[in-house]
Amino acid sequence: xxxxxxxxxxxxxxxxxxxxxxxxxxxxxxYDQTFPAQVQLIDEGATADFLHIVIEGxxxxxxxxxxxxxxxxxxxxxxxxxxxxxxxxxxxxxxARTLEKTRVILVPSVDLRAVFRIDxxxxxxxxxxxxxxxxxxxxxxKDLKLRSARERLAAYILKQARTxxxxxxxxxxxxxxxxxxxxxxxxxxxxxxxxxxxxxGAKVDGQRIIITDRRALEAxxxxxxxxxxxxxxGLTAGLELPEAGVDGLVRPxxxxxxxxx
Length: 261
What we know:
The chain has helices at residues 6-10, 20-27, 83-88, 109-118, 120-146, 149-161, 176-182, 187-198, 214-221, 225-228, and strands at residues 31-35, 40-42, 50-56, 59-65, 68-75, 79-81, 95-98, 102-108, 169-171, 202-205, 208-211. By secondary structure, the chain is of the alpha+beta class. It has a 4-stranded antiparallel β-sheet. Strands 2-7-4-5 form a 4-stranded antiparallel β-sheet.
């Protein structure tokens, strides 16, 4: 692992407050690897031997069953996965694959567990990350179970617009097929929902979304922080999709210092 990357890793919420000696213990056996696109990094059900830290590129977390797949999150630098399995020494509940050329740092789980037992600051940071992940899962479950496909898409657009500079226009930060999977619908249903929303308050031009009538869009989605966030006190987002960056463009620096569990 490159020494130049240690400061960025150190500033992740998970590692920021832990003792220096313990940070050295966690990273001493860590190493980095670069993978091409569409490489499966972990398999659900496999032993969680490493915590993964995304340094460059992007990673999709997904799960499959009986020939079906669903997208659970898309991670950008600098992000970690999957902390819960590493701390519990339990099998992964998700799989992960690269979406593009990606560099990942692998931290041995055994070192994480050893430091967790002796470093109260790291233990508290771990609990905070896991709590953020739990809350994001509850929100996403409510979104899937309580809203229609049209309402979910409208809520997603409004949420993305919060991070856009003008609050009106942004580029979708992921492919539409991944967005459809995350929202629990087929690509065809996503296309129909987008067409429906164009008649209400959101214009779609390829990957660009332009809000033309925010109030009308809010009347469809009925946004609430109890489903859409954000969480209080700047907690990490948990398992979610990336946000649109400056001018709607997604850049690696827009995701610096974000943790994922």
